Amino acid sequence: MTTETDMWETPLSDDAAPMLIADLDAERVLAATIMSRPTLVDELPAQGFDPADITDDRYRWIWHAVEELAPRFQAGDIRYLAVDRQLQAWRADGRIPVVPLNQQQLAELYNDAVGSADWYADRITKKAIARRLYAHGVNARLLAQSAAFDPDSDVATAQAELDGVVRAGSDGETSRVGDLLEGVLERAITPPTNDDRVLAGFLDLDSLLCGGWAPGQMVVIGARPAMGKTTMGLCFARAAAIQHGIPTLFESLEMSKEELGNSIVSAETRVALHHIKQGIVDNDGVQRLARRVPAIKDAPLYINDEATLTMPMLRARVRNLVRTAGLRLVVIDYLQLMQAPKAESRQVAVSEMSRQLKLLAKEFGITVIVLAQLNRGPEQRTEKKPMVSDLRESGAIEQDADIVILLHREDAYEKESPRAGEADLIVGKHRGGPTATITTAFQGHYARFVDMAST
Fold first, then answer.
1. Residue 119 CA to its chain's centroid (Å)
2. Is it the case that residue 325 has pLDDT exceeding 60?
3. What distances in angstroms separate CA 382 from CA 108, 377, 406, 411, 412, one per listed residue?
4. Residue 189 or residue 387, greater confidence
5. Inter-residue contact 418 to 427 (CB < 8 Å)
């Protein structure tokens, strides 16, 4: 004989548990209220509510009946008699797989209507997300227990399903243009600050960008090998995290943490990088290190140098740092070294990664700077300056990017160039803003680029 204690301790079956995660009282009140206020069948979905989240079929079919009847009623409520006639007609046609509430039950339900249904709709949505989360856990467990478990594909599948659980029902509201004017006018007279922009660290570039990188932007920095892509990426990361205290993530697929640490310290202290590597820093250099190291140590700069980086891994890391550290900038070094998803071609795979990176920036309201390698086009031209079309493998990179900056140094091709030590930041694409070429100084021995005025 099963005791009451045994019943409580018996684990729920995987099939039964999700259905128990529901608020039937909220569903009942919502079904009653939409009969008295039929406009809710349009208003609630616009706010993110999905009627498919109603678990009781009888209440869900009331929603569908009101939805069907609403266009015929110009004003006022829809009495339960009309709802009953619609349900019975559908029942006779075999469209309803369950027995709907009868006329007497609908009359009693009608009396339970409330003034506002927002709280009840929100309860139903939260329970639906909880059910999806539970189902995700069951599916993840089955994947892990499978003899054919593949970490690369199955973890990515589980992560994608989890993203679906989190994002469900989170579509933004539609706004009339008149509602936007107040914000436009306020921005027109309020210069941007560190609260809404991330400074790039170069005066002319920040001026061109109207105060720095903006939330939701995907920025591509393209260059041929040995031009200093990683150094430029570190410059942007240092400007944000060390100089302005903005939480930043640097994903390195090429250099180790130790190498990056050397470069960061060299750039911040003006101690020659090769002296740090060789362990021959003099007393003057040691003093500069001692003065600057505390600021570097306390900076919210997070570095990851795992050799493998997939979009699900990046998304998980970004989500965690946004929640725990207020992450606002991500630098990826570099796109072509990321592990591409399975696709019919490399070009399609890179296109998919590019699109996902743009969505990542928009979803979390951060700036994503992606370093990318250019093809051999510049080297085959008399004038070696790169063009946006030189981005390797996919035109989708150019299409998805809000800003494309091409890094070019003449002395990389001609050692005796009169422009030795100079580097051009060619802003080839700037969505919503001007393009230009900005000249900076390349100080390779300090692993950094600086404003020309700083030299």
1. 28
2. yes
3. 84, 10, 17, 15, 14
4. 387
5. no
